[in-house]
Amino acid sequence: MNVVLPEMNNNTQYLQNEKYFYTNSTNTTMVSYLYPSFQYYQLLFFIIGVLLTNAAGAIANVILLLAMAVYGPLRKSMSSVLLIQCIAIDLYATTIAVPLTVIPVYLGPKLQLSSTFCKFTPLFIYLAYSCGMYAEAVVAVHRLIATLIPQRFHFFKKKSSIICLLVIPWLIAVTHAMFPTLGLGSKFVPGSRGCIPIQTGNSALVLASLVVGYYLPTVIIGVCYIIVLGKTGFDLRARNGSHSLRRRFEISRTLFLSFLWHCLTIYPPIIAKSTFKTQFTTDLGFQLAIMWLGNSFCAINPVFFWATSQLFQKGIQAVLRCQWHRARTSAVAPVAPIQRAVATPNNAIDMEMFNGRQNAYRL
Questions:
Q1: pTM, rounded to two decimals
Q2: What is the model's pLDDT at position 266?
């Protein structure tokens, strides 16, 4: 979730990444950049494209949540609750975090944001992104434990363990977001086009924030899924008919591809800034093309689940066809009352034989 616009003077160069802008000099004057008409339309198309992408992504994430909740094979997956949290965070990003990030960019100086609003921006916008990263890392570690030490995995399936695994990403994300909120290393201030993160002090804190927010969770996720896919693929060769192994491999493969897509949205801005510095800081179209990736990750992520996993395909089909609703309706359909026959001298023997057969069936 990021938007970078070329607001700079001759003595300032901005190092841009997914969450922070900070300057090479400590004293910087923020200068509003006046866009020519062509660049204005570039910006307008960018905003419309991001909002439409995230609107479609919000619908896709809702469908994915329903598929996880109502489709049996997905609901019974060992990491289903943790996956639901990841999808819910993506839904929050597509409906709240991304619009709050990109709309002020288009409105520009017409929308004057308060310093208080910008101060707490990390807590209600970028907190979701950091939490999403670590929620994915927790899922990866959870599946790694199930693969390497299945005999101990029952401990991590307990309700108390699942609650702890759900809380851990939020604890890390809140701690990570408190640094810019308190002005440690960086802070958010009102700019001409939204809230602008700037460096406030020791660059070591900024570097530590980058490591904790980006590099550490991506390394954890990547290493875990490489091991899980390798071990599960090896086990499948020995037990080709194992349905549980096939399901584990399929879901892990889908999550790994989602992780690769995540990396594609994180690192291009950093690579572009360091490799194509002049073009990146002067070409608005190039910036917006790169920035669209970061603002569209949570919206496009459901496409990878649908395209790479038959389980998710069947779950999504069950939701779209309302099969879960029909199954629930048939399960609660009223049962016609049973008419009991009254024994008479003519049918007493038949009734006795009938009751005997009924008792046998109940046993």
A1: 0.77
A2: 83
